[in-house]
Amino acid sequence: MENKILIVDDAAFMRMMIKDILTKNGYEVVGEAENGARAIERYKELSPDLVIMDITMPEVDGIQAVKEIKKINSESKIIMCSAMGQQAMVIESIQAGARDFIVKPFQAERVVEAVKKVLG
């Protein structure tokens, strides 16, 4: 079965980069969202196997979105993306229910490794 992935980042080029890495490694990107509010809507629509979510976004940030998605599905799998020096936010998102995190700028191997680990 294909693993369906939802990518959430307010920067279109970041979404494109992640999508490119995932697609090249045989994963299916079923949707994208540009902020946490959209992420929650898209999650309900698509029920993806995995969400890759940026922490810092306008409107609803990643941490808030994780909490909301966890309410929809407590088993949801989420990997956070953070810029350097956001350790406190990373810890907060893990406490909110994220399974792992990747740091920007992305290294393709690290993205794939995190995805494999979380999807099992």
- Arithmetic mean of pLDDT: 94
Q: What is the class in the CATH system?
A: Alpha Beta
Contiguous runs where pLDDT drops below 50 for at least 5 residues: none
Strand arrangement in the largest pleated sheet: 2-1-3-4-5
**Radius of gyration, taken over Cα atoms and rounded to an integer in Å:** 12 Å
CATH architecture: 3-Layer(aba) Sandwich
H/E series:
EHEHEHEHEH
Counting H and I runs of at least 4 residues, what is the number of helices?
Answer: 5
The counted number of beta strands is 5
The CATH topology turns out to be Rossmann fold
- CATH level 4 superfamily: Response regulator
Q: Tell me the span between the first and last alpha carbons.
A: 13 Å
Summed up, the domain count is 1
Helix content: 40-55%
Look at the helices and sheets and give the structural class: alpha/beta
Q: Could you describe the largest sheet, including whether it forms a barrel?
A: 5 strands, parallel
Query: What is the global morphology?
Result: globular
- In terms of DSSP E residues, the strand content is 15-25%
Structural overview:
- It is a single chain.
- The protein has helices at 12-24, 36-46, 62-72, 87-96, 108-119; strands spanning 4-8, 28-33, 50-54, 78-82, 100-103.
- The protein has 120 residues and is an alpha/beta fold.
- The chain has one domain (4-119): Response regulator (Rossmann fold), CATH 3.40.50.2300.
- It has a 5-stranded parallel beta sheet with strand order 2-1-3-4-5, with helices on both faces.
- Helix 3 links the parallel strand 3 and strand 4.
- The longest helix is centred in the first third of the chain and has 13 residues, at 12-24.
- The chain is globular.
- 33% of the residues are buried.
- The model has no long low-confidence stretch (mean pLDDT 94).
